[in-house]
Structure formats: structure tokens, C-alpha cells
Amino acid sequence: MNLDVVATATWRVPVYVRIGYGGSESVQSASEALQYLINWWPSERGDAYENALGMCKAASEGTVSCEVARDAFLAAAAEAHVRA
pLDDT per residue over 24-33, tens digit each? Predict the structure, then answer.
């Protein structure tokens, strides 16, 4: 599997999150989601956050489906109350 293609593969439907006081932002891939989880996620970090971190990393490496990572990211967003 070509990892360059996997790392840039976009989700069929983007996930919209609102972190802090800014507007909602579109997250369109596992690699984008991973950046949000690592760099901008609020302090609400439970089991769903940890699972999303692992799934998004795995999807970026091509070992898990991008849509599986999207589902995990959605769960983390719900846990942290950041879904727009």
C-alpha cells in the first residue's frame, strides 16, 4: 500500500470541530485529525481521545481504514464536546 496516498486520503464526509472560541473548522483526514489531537485538543482527554490518537496514527501509516479513524475521531470530539 502506498503510504503517501494513505496519509493524504480524505474522509468521505469531513468532521467539523470548534475548539476554543474560534469558528468551526473542517477536519478532512486522519492526518489532519492527528494534528488536532496532538496540538489543539482541549484538556478533556479520556478513553475516546486515546483511541482516536491511536486510530488516526494507524490510518496515517496505512494500517487502519481512514473511516475507522474518522469514527474514532468523532467519538473523541463527542467526549470533549468540540463537535460543531
Answer: 999 999 999 9
Evaluate the CA torsion angle 72, 75, 81, 84 in order and state its sign.
Answer: positive
Instruction: List b or e across 29-40, with b for residues whose CB sees 16 or more CB atoms inside 10 angstroms.
Output: bbbbbbebbeee
Helices 30-39 and 66-80, interaxial angle, to 10°?
Answer: 30
- Count CB atoms within 10 A of the CB of residue 20: 8
- Residue ranges per domain, the chain? 3-80
| Phi-psi map region of 81: left, alpha, beta (phi>0 left; psi -120 to 50 alpha) | left
User: Do 6 and 52 meet the contact criterion of CB atoms below 8 Å apart?
Assistant: no
| pTM: predicted TM-score of the whole model, two decimal places | 0.88
Supply φ then ψ for residue 12, to 5 degrees: -60, -40
